[in-house]
C-alpha cells in the first residue's frame, strides 16, 4: 500500500511539473449559419451550421475538418481546436442532413455535399484571417474521418484550390466497401493490401444497416462504430481506443422526417438504392452506379495535391484495401502520397495525439512551409503481446515508400504453405445459422479487451473448410493482404445458379491451439458461373489486409466458410467443394523497414524515469509473487486435487468458506455435499480460478490454482447448464463448442466422450428432439471433451427421472474407471451415496466430514442383518449386553451395536443357529448428513 501511494505521489508531482507553463494558445470561435445554393431539385438554399476557429495569430492558412457519418461539427471540435492551437484557421460544419444543418443526405454527392464544401472554400477566401494564394483562392487543406475523409478526397479531386489533404479511415469505392468481391480470375495489383475489387460482390448487410439507421433522423446519434471522428478523450492512444462524444452544452436539433417517410433524412435516390440491395441481397447496376458516383475513386485521377492517407488496421468497414487503391490511383495521377496504417479504425478508435501531430506536421509543411519535409515514407504500426497498464505495446515500422506505386518496386511476398484435402461445405437454407467473424458496431468495445480481440470468430462445422500450415521456425510479420489460389465447384444435385458466395479468413494459431483472427477481418467473394457438372473454377482470393506478427511455433490457418453473420448470404441451400489450387501457397506480403517507437520529449524523461523505476520495483515484486503463486509441489503432481486451509471472506464479515481442507485421488468419484449456504459453490468457483481465496490454497496436480493458471486446461466443467443450439445435432453442437476453444480437433476425443456418455446414434439427431436426460448426457460429453483429468460437475442429475439418473450414474462411473477423477456437487444424497465412492460434507463453510461413503455411513455403529429367522435373531441380540434398539422389519433385523464389532454380533447369531444371508451398516448417507448438519438445515 505504501509503495502504491509513493508511486501515485511521484506520478502526480511529475504531471504537475510537466504541465507548468504549457497552457495551450487561446482559440476564438465564430459560429454562423451559412446559406449555400441547393443542389439539383432543390429550389431553396441550404443552410450549413459552421464554426470558425481562429488561432492566436492571423492571417493563417485554413484547414477544413469534416465529420464522420452520424456526427456533426461537434464531433470534431477537439480536432479543430488542436489544429487551431498549431496556428491554423479551422472551419468545421455539420454536413447537410446532420446537426442543425438543412438539406438531405446525398452521401457526398458531387452536386450536394461536395458542392457545399466548394462553397465553404469560396467563403474562406473572403475571410481576412485566411492567407490567400490568389483571388478567391485561399491557402487551404482538408481532413476528416470516414465519411469526412471521403469528402476530403472528393473535394480535392474537384477543386484545385485545395493545397493538401489528410483523409482518415475512409473508402475509395463505396460499392466495394459495402458490396465487396475479393476474388478474380486474374491477379491482384502489386501493392501490399491490394484487393481484387471484382464486380457482383456480397452485401455487407450489418454495416450498411448501421449507416442507414444513423441517417434516419435523430441528431447526435450515439454512434457505436466510432464512424464519427469523435471529440473528447484527449489522451486517446495511438494504438486506438474510441473516444466519447463531448458535451458542449449546446443543444442540437435535426428536422424530423416526414411522418411515414421510410427514407428519413436521405435523398430519394439513396433511399431507393438501399432498399434495393437490402431487400434482394444483391446490388443492381443502378445501385452500383450511384455508390461509385459518390466515391473518391471517381475523382482520384485528378488528385495531384500532397496526400497523407491514414487507415486503420482494426477496421471491418473500410479496410486497408480501400486506402491501398486510393494510393495507387493518386500516384498514377502524379500526386505525392504518404500512407500510414495505425492500430485503430472503425473497430479500434480514432488516431491518438501522436498521429494527429503527424497530420498537423503534414499541413505545417505543405501549407506554411514550416518544419522538415515529411516526404512519402510508408509507416505501419505493429501491435505486440507485451502490455503496459493494460494497453498493448506498439512499434512502428517505417519503409522508404509504399510498395507498388507508380515507378516503385512491387511488394515482397513470401510463400507460406498450407495443406488440406478438398472439402465439401454447405450453405444452410436461409443462410442461417451463420458463422461469426466480427461484431459490426461493437468492434471498439471488443478490441478494448485483450481476451476478446480477435477471438469472437466462430466457424460453424459443416460450413467451413480449413487449410493449415506448419509451425513457423521464425517470426513472420504480415503487412497487408495475402493471396491464395482456390478451386471452387458445385456438388451434384445442388447447383448454384447465382455462383458460390464464400468468405475467407486467415487465423493465427498458437502452440496451445488458440486461434486468433487478426482484425476480426474477413474477405467476402462470389464465384459466378460455376458449371453444373462439378468442373472447378480457379480464382485468386485476396485475404483481408492485416498487420500481424505470426510468432515462432505458431501456424497460419486459412478458413473458407459459406456464411458470415455480417453479410447477406444466399437463402437457397447449396453445397460447394473447396480445394487449394495445385502447387498453391499463401502469398504473404512483407514490408521491411526501420523499427521505431514514439519518443517522449527529453525534459519529462527524469520524472517518467522515476515513475518507471518505481513501477519496475513493483513489477519485480509482482513477478516474485506470481512465481510463488505458480509454484509446483513435486510431491503432488499425480494428485488431482488438494485443498489446504481454504478460506473466502467477503466485506461485512461474511466467511463463505472457513479453513476447508480435503484431498481427492485418481479414479475417485467424490461428492461435495452441504445445505444451501454451505460454501460449495464458492469452493467450486475458487477451484475454477474464477475468484481468489482469502487464505489457503488449491493445488491441481501439484500446481497452485490462480486466475489463468495453465493447469486449468486439465479441468472440464459443467456448472451452469450447456447452451445447445436446438437445430443442430448433438455431434455438431460438440464440434462447435470445441472449435470455439481454439484447440486442435484431434485433441477433442469426440468418439471416446460420446461412447462414455452413451448417446449412441442419437448424437446425430437434432438436439431439439432430445429428452432432458439426453441433454444432460450431452452436457457431460461436452465437459469430457479433451478428456480432462479432473471433471467438475454441478448437479449433473438435475431434472432427470429415475431411469435417467441410473444412466447418468453409469456415465460417471465409466469415466472415473478410465483413471480420471470426478467431483460432483449435488443435493440428491441418495444418488451421491450410490454414485460416489468418497464424500465431503460442508456446513457453514467448514468441513464436517470427509472419507469413503462406507466409512461415513458405518460410523454410527448401527447394523442390519438379513436372516432366515428374524424373531430368533432379535431375541439372541437382545440378550447381549450393550446392544440396544433391536427391531424387526420383514427378514431384516436392525440393531444399535453401541461400539460392538459387527463380527461379534454375527458370532452371536451363528451360535443361536440363525442363518445370516447379509450383514452391513444400517444408516443411509441422508441419516449421517442430517446428524452432521442438523435437521433444520
From TrEMBL:
Residues 641-869 form the ABC transporter domain. Keywords: ATP-binding, Hydrolase, Membrane, Nucleotide-binding, Transmembrane, Transmembrane helix, Transport. One of its GO terms (molecular function) is ATP binding. The chain crosses the membrane at residues 605-624. Residues 222-261 are annotated as: Disordered. InterPro entries: AAA+_ATPase, AB_hydrolase_fold, ABC_transporter-like_ATP-bd, ABC_transporter-like_CS, Galactose-bd-like_sf, P-loop_NTPase, Xaa-Pro-like_dom, Xaa-Pro_dipept_C. It holds the Pfam family Peptidase_S15. The keyword Lipid metabolism does not apply. Belongs to the ABC transporter superfamily. PANTHER family: ABC TRANSPORTER, ATP-BINDING PROTEIN. This is ABC-2 type transport system ATP-binding protein. It comes from Actinokineospora alba.
Amino acid at each position: 500500500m505504501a509503495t502504491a501511494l509513493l508511486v501515485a505521489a511521484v506520478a502526480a508531482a511529475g504531471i504537475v511539473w510537466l504541465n507548468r507553463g504549457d497552457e495551450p494558445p487561446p482559440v476564438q470561435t465564430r459560429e454562423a449559419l451559412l446559406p449555400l445554393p441547393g443542389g439539383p431539385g432543390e429550389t431553396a438554399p441550404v443552410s450549413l451550421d459552421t464554426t470558425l476557429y481562429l488561432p492566436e495569430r492571423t492571417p493563417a492558412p485554413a484547414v477544413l475538418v469534416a465529420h464522420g457519418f452520424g456526427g456533426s461539427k461537434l464531433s470534431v471540435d477537439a480536432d479543430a481546436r488542436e489544429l487551431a492551437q498549431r496556428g491554423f484557421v479551422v472551419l468545421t460544419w455539420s454536413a447537410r442532413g446532420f446537426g442543425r444543418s438543412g438539406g438531405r443526405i446525398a452521401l457526398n454527392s458531387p452536386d450536394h455535399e461536395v458542392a457545399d464544401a466548394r462553397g465553404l472554400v469560396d467563403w474562406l477566401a473572403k475571410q481576412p484571417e485566411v492567407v490567400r494564394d490568389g483571388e478567391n483562392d485561399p491557402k487551404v487543406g482538408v481532413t476528416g474521418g470516414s465519411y469526412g475523409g471521403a469528402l476530403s478526397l472528393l473535394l480535392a479531386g474537384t477543386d484545385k484550390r485545395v493545397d493538401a489533404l489528410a483523409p482518415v479511415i475512409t473508402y475509395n469505392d463505396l460499392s466495394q466497401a459495402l458490396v465487396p468481391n475479393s476474388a478474380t480470375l486474374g491477379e491482384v495489383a502489386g501493392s501490399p493490401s491490394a484487393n481484387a475489387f471484382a464486380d457482383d460482390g456480397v452485401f455487407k448487410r450489418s454495416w450498411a444497416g448501421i449507416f442507414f439507421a444513423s441517417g434516419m433522423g435523430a441528431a447526435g446519434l450515439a454512434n457505436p462504430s466510432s464512424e464519427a471522428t469523435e471529440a473528447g478523450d484527449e489522451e486517446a492512444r495511438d494504438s486506438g481506443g474510441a473516444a466519447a462524444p463531448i458535451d458542449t452544452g449546446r443543444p442540437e436539433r435535426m428536422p424530423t422526417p416526414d411522418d411515414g417517410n421510410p427514407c428519413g433524412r436521405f435523398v430519394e435516390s439513396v433511399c431507393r438504392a438501399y432498399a434495393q440491395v437490402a431487400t434482394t441481397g444483391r446490388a443492381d447496376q443502378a445501385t452500383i452506379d450511384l455508390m461509385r458516383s459518390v466515391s473518391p475513386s471517381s475523382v482520384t485521377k485528378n488528385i495531384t495535391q500532397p496526400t497523407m492517407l491514414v487507415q486503420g488496421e482494426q477496421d471491418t468497414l473500410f479496410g486497408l484495401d480501400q486506402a491501398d487503391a486510393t494510393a495507387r490511383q493518386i500516384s498514377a495521377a502524379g500526386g505525392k502520397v504518404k500512407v500510414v496504417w495505425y492500430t485503430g479504425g472503425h473497430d479500434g478508435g480514432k488516431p491518438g495525439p501522436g498521429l494527429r501531430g503527424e497530420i498537423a506536421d503534414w499541413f505545417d509543411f505543405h501549407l506554411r512551409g514550416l518544419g522538415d519535409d515529411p516526404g512519402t515514407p510508408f509507416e505501419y504500426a505493429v501491435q505486440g503481446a507485451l502490455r503496459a497498464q493494460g494497453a498493448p505495446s506498439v512499434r512502428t515500422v517505417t519503409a522508404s515508400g509504399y510498395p507498388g506505386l507508380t515507378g516503385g518496386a512491387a511488394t515482397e511476398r513470401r510463400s507460406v504453405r498450407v495443406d488440406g484435402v478438398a472439402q465439401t461445405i454447405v450453405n444452410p437454407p436461409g443462410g442461417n445459422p451463420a458463422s461469426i467473424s466480427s461484431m459490426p458496431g461493437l468492434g471498439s468495445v471488443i478490441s478494448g479487451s485483450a481476451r476478446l480481440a480477435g477471438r469472437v470468430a466462430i466457424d460453424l462445422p459443416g460450413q467451413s473448410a480449413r487449410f493449415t500450415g506448419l509451425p513457423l521456425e521464425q517470426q513472420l510479420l504480415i503487412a497487408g493482404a495475402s493471396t491464395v489460389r482456390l478451386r471452387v465447384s458445385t456438388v451434384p444435385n445442388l447447383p448454384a445458379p447465382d455462383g458460390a458466395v464464400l468468405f475467407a479468413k486467415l487465423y493465427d494459431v498458437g502452440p496451445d491451439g488458440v486461434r486468433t483472427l487478426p482484425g476480426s477481418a474477413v474477405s467476402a467473394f462470389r464465384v459466378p458461373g460455376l458449371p453444373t457438372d462439378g468442373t472447378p473454377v480457379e480464382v485468386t482470393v485476396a485475404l483481408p489486409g492485416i498487420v500481424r506478427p505470426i510468432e515462432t511455433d505458431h501456424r497460419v490457418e486459412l478458413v473458407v466458410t459459406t456464411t458470415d453473420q455480417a453479410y447477406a448470404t444466399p437463402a437457397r441451400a447449396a453445397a460447394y467443394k473447396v480445394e487449394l489450387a495445385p502447387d498453391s501457397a499463401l502469398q504473404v506480403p512483407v514490408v521491411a523497414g526501420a523499427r521505431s517507437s514514439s519518443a517522449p520529449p527529453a525534459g519529462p524523461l527524469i520524472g517518467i524515469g522515476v515513475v518507471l523505476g518505481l513501477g519496475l520495483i513493483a513489477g519485480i515484486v509482482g513477478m516474485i509473487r506470481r512465481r510463488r503463486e505458480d509454484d509446483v509441489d513435486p510431491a503432488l503432481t499425480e494428485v488431482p486435487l488438494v485443498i489446504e486451509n481454504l478460506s473466502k471472506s467477503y466485506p461485512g464479515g461474511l466467511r463463505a468458506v472457513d479453513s476447508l481442507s480435503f484431498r481427492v485421488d485418481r479414479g475417485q468419484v467424490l461428492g461435495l455435499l452441504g445445505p444451501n449456504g454451505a460454501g460449495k459453490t464458492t469452493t467450486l468457483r475458487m477451484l475454477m480460478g474464477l475468484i481468489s481465496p482469502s487464505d489457503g490454497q488449491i493445488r491441481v496436480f501439484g500446481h497452485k490454482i490462480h486466475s489463468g493458471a495453465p493447469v486449468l486446461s486439465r479441468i472440464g466443467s459443467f456448472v451452469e447448464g450447456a447452451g445447445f443450439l436446438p437445430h443442430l445435432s448433438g455431434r455438431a453442437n460438440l464440434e462447435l463448442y470445441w472449435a470455439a476453444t481454439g484447440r486442435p480437433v484431434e485433441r477433442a476425443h469426440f468418439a471416446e466422450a460420446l461412447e462414455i456418455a452413451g448417446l449412441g446414434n442419437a448424437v446425430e439427431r437434432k438436439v431439439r428432439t432430445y429428452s432432458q436426460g439426453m441433454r444432460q448426457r450431452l452436457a457431460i460429453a461436452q465437459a469430457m471433451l479433451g478428456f480432462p483429468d479432473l471433471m467438475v460437475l454441478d448437479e449433473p442429475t438435475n431434472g432427470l427421472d429415475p431411469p435417467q439418473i441410473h444412466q447418468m450414474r453409469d456415465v460417471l462411473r465409466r469415466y472415473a474407471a478410465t483413471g480420471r477423477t470426478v467431483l460432483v456437487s449435488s443435493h440428491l444424497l441418495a444418488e451421491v451415496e450410490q454414485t460416489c465412492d468418497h464424500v465431503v460434507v460442508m456446513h457453514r463453510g467448514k468441513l464436517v466430514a470427509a472419507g469413503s461413503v462406507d466409512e461415513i455411513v458405518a460410523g454410527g455403529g448401527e447394523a442390519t442383518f438379513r436372516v432366515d429367522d428374524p424373531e430368533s435373531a432379535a431375541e439372541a441380540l437382545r440378550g447381549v449386553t450393550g446392544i440396544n434398539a433391536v427391531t424387526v422389519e420383514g427378514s431384516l433385523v436392525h440393531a444399535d451395536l453401541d461400539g460392538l464389532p459387527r463380527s461379534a454380533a454375527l458370532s452371536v447369531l451363528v451360535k443361536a443357529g440363525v442363518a445370516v444371508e447379509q450383514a452391513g451398516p444400517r444408516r443411509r448417507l441422508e441419516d449421517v448428513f442430517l446428524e452432521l448438519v442438523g435437521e433444520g438445515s
